[in-house]
Recover the amino acids of this structure.
């Protein structure tokens, strides 16, 4: 959404943590207050390292027959005990994502076109579920009911910035000169 709106106005996505967490509400409030107190939007270019741009590539679900546990060797899929700390953390290829008691991948990953693409992102090696590519889990849940009813997480990948080097901030908002609404 931020990228789509950037053509029309300054745009950001602000990560505030899990719903209902008071720290997330405070973070959002402080950010909005800081924006409201800007005397002007900066006209200078931002260095590329100051911008992290990601897009969602897949929704990760468990296969219907899979039993999930937390650090449970007997579960079909076992979450890492502190897996929620991976939320919005960019993982390199080869990162441990969980364990399986079988040899087949217990996860499904669906892209925006409805294609099953889990094998592009995960592999099983000696009972460990390993990431195949750099990826960032988002909205990662450790709640078994949420995992069953909705999903385990979403996967995001880093987008390359349109220009190598810097991004120009623009305060120019397109205007309608045709007279049509």
């Amino acid at each position: 959404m931020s990228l789509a709106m950037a053509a029309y106005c300054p745009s950001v996505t602000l990560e505030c943590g899990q719903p209902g967490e008071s720290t997330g509400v405070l973070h959002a409030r402080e950010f909005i207050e800081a924006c409201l107190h800007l005397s002007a939007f900066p006209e200078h270019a931002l260095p590329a390292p100051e911008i992290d741009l990601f897009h969602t590539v897949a929704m990760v679900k468990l296969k219907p027959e899979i039993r999930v546990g937390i650090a449970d060797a007997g579960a079909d899929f076992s979450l890492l005990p502190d897996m929620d700390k991976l939320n919005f953390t960019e993982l390199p290829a080869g990162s441990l994502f969980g364990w399986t008691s079988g040899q087949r991948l217990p996860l499904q990953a669906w892209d925006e076109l409805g294609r099953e693409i889990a094998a592009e992102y995960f592999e099983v090696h000696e009972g460990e579920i390993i990431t195949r590519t750099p990826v960032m889990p988002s909205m990662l849940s450790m709640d078994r009911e949420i995992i069953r009813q909705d999903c385990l997480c979403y996967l995001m990948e880093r987008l390359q910035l349109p220009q190598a080097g810097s991004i120009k901030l623009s305060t120019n908002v397109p205007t309608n000169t045709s007279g049509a609404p």
